Amino acid sequence: MIEVRVVSRHDEARDICSYELASVDDQPLPAFSAGAHIDVHLPGGLIRQYSLCNHPEERHRYLIGVLKDPGSRGGSRAMHEQIRPGTRLSISEPRNLFPLVHEARRSLLFAGGIGITPILCMAERLAHSGADFELHYCARARDRAAFVERLQHSPFAHRVFLHFDQEPETALDAAKVLAAPESDVHVYVCGPGGFMQHVLDTAKAAGWQEPCLHREYFAAAPIDTGADGSFSIRIASSGQTFEVPAEKSVVQVLQDQGIEIAISCEQGICGTCLTRVLEGVPEHRDLFLTEDEQAANDQFTPCCSRSKTPLLVLDL
Question: How confident is the model at residue 218, as a pLDDT?
């Protein structure tokens, strides 16, 4: 863990604040790459992931942007209501589950709302390296779009296209932007689930292949758990078998038995809890694994996924 202090906090847009973090001892922070995020440990024991949105060559600070989400499970509310300049926080080293493909001939970046945070860092990196790219940023209205001034005054401003729901003349024509799929052009998308699905569905309809499509979700869509039933899990190393009732996750059952699994997002987004499956067929509910990885059925996210078969044997 890294101990940091909040150097500054700024209102970037309606309900979006940025937080500048620096090491408490003023030492350089660990290096990171575009698309990386950190785990932030918040008051009350909450852990939340926030993408780094400053230039990836900076070591004196990390910059994160946080949307105050009305559907917050407590993380964004805590950031907005409790975290001020001078506050000390514990954070993880940066991890990157949304990296750039640096050998790509061209990159198409799509951001929706707060999804601009990793995309902005990507644009900074691509511009710095002289790469070919364009950035499409969508928001409901101008006052809800963060970092617009930074984008408009950047060296790559001519590559940035702003799209606002309240200004129909600026509407994103995803089909037009994605009309010519090529194997050396890569697409990156981050934002609300509906926005991401629109971009990805449009890309697939145009013929884009999965290896060229990259995404990062900030939150999982609500899942109807009304039909959930129970199933069993077996620990391969010990042979212990436990029942997972409908109202509990695999992680919760394991924790009740004193078996700890590293967790972070608890929504199947970050992959922290990814566990190998030796027997049985998982019911995948994560947004971390690709469709092909899910189809292999040899790993799953026990924080949210369940089982299609009566028993899952876990490589634990």
Answer: 72
Please give the average per-residue pLDDT across 147-165, as a whole number.
96
Calculate the CA dihedral of residues 205, 209, 210, 216 and round it to 10 degrees: -70
One DSSP character per residue, 233-302 reads EEETTT--EEEE-TTS-HHHHHHHTT-----SSSSSSS-TT-EEEEES-EE---SSS-HHHHHHTSEE-T
Q: Supply 74's token pair.
A: 């407590």
Domains and CATH numbers, the chain: 2-91 (2.40.30.10), 106-217 (3.40.50.80), 231-314 (3.10.20.30)
- Span 27-48, average pLDDT: 90
Give φ, ψ of 158 to 5 degrees: -70, -10
Contact 282, 312 (CB under 8 A): yes
Q: Which of 217-221, 271-275, 300-304 has the highest mean pLDDT?
A: 300-304
Tell me the C-alpha distance between 10 and 16, whole Å. 9
| Lowest-pLDDT choice from 160-164, 242-246, 266-270 | 266-270
pTM: 0.78
